[in-house]
Amino acid sequence: MGQDLFPRWDEALDDASALRKCIVCGCTEMYTRKNLPQVTPVIVVLAFLGATVALLGYATNPLVIVLLGVLLAVDVLTLFWARRQLVCYGCGAIYWAMRIARYHHAWDRTVAERIGKEPIELPTVLIESAKKREG
């Protein structure tokens, strides 16, 4: 039978209603990242092909110029659609659609290594599910 996970909201939010620490494991170290849409790799490949076509001199055709302009517009829109997420170094919990405080920065390897060496206090639900995946 499954157990319930009770989030630890005690002192999790700061005065500006931004997440200060993870509600799953209580870790205060978190980092931000952009969640790009799944179409991003396709757009990157198409942009590379478009640049190659332009370098080879085939961009003088009006149709090619229009297609390169459309590709540029889609590429810029993809960056605007990317949402910022907050990720816990300790347990890997991902938070989105929340206010992100200025003191949370991008991923840092030194912080990740330091947190990786510390024991994490996970709820029993997560410990049991991790043991089932390993065994």
Fold topology:
Elements: E1 30-35, H1 40-55, H2 62-81, E2 83-88, E3 94-95, E4 105-106, H3 109-117, H4 124-134
Parallel strand pairs: 1-4
Antiparallel strand pairs: 1-2, 2-3
Helix pairs in contact: 1-2
Could you please describe the fold and organization of this structure?
There is one protein chain. The chain has 135 residues and is an alpha+beta fold. The chain folds into two domains: 1-34 and 85-135, no CATH class; 40-81. 41% of the residues lie in helices and 12% in strands. It contains four helices and four strands; from the N terminus they run E-H-H-E-E-E-H-H. The chain has a four-stranded mixed beta sheet, with no helix packed on it. It is elongated. The two termini are 18 Å apart. The model has no long low-confidence stretch (mean pLDDT 77).
Q: In summary, what is this structure?
A:
With 135 residues, the chain is an alpha+beta fold.
Any descriptors?
4 strands, alpha+beta, 135 residues, 2 domains, elongated
Strand order of the largest sheet: 3-2-1-4
Please give the share of residues in helix.
Answer: 40-55%
Largest sheet: 4 strands, mixed
Question: Shape, please?
Answer: elongated
* Whole-number count of domains: 2
| Total E-strand runs | 4
Strand composition percent: 5-15%
Mean pLDDT value: 77
Instruction: Kindly report how far apart the N and C termini lie.
Output: 18 Å
| Helical segment count | 4
The H/E string reads EHHEEEHH
Unreliable residue stretches: none
| CA radius of gyration | 22 Å
What structural class should be given to the helix and strand makeup?
alpha+beta
